[in-house]
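Sample entry (215 residues):
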Amino acid sequence: MTNAASANNENFWNFDYYPEPSRDKEILKELGFIPGLKEILMLRQVHALEHATVWVLSETDKASNNREASANLNQKDNENLGGLSTERGFYLYGQVNPLALKRAVLAALKRIQSGEWDLAVHPRCGTNLSVAMFLTTGLVLGAHLLLPRGPIEQVIGVGIAATTAAQLAPDLGREAQKYLTTSIPFNLEVKNISHTSDIWGRPAYFVGVQWRDSQ
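Predicted structure, serialized as tokens:
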């Protein structure tokens, strides 16, 4: 999920691993008897495609507003765009031209399958928020249990815990996206793109995908 919130423009888009195109297909072949496994694998791949699409749309918007802008991921992304992934595809929120969205989705899929794996990670992803909340809660609780019960000591402990969590959360959130909540969409193909509403009635575009066994 990509939230419409402020983004961190720090350049940390460097992957140090090499995804195997057939990995998820082999996992499904070996463990396909596990209920819901295919849906989980698809959700992770859709999540990566959602992020990649937002990046590509943001590059397009930036270039259209500034002819001298170079197409790289260090530029600000379009904070008016947001997404929500499901195992059947993803919702895209924001003002987008339908034709531009189709081009962006296809370009994103091609680029991320061709080796631009950094497109799978996005600083506004809800994973980062979840990691930050979990980390902050854990450190604050640890400080409460380990430090003296005096009010001054407790306040200082909470402050240190919150500061430490804020420093660690972006990197840990990025790692969580890379290894847990996204997967390079080698097995996805775009089925359709439609203007619809999500389950809460919010207007959005839905990018439907399907599983593709062949590489």
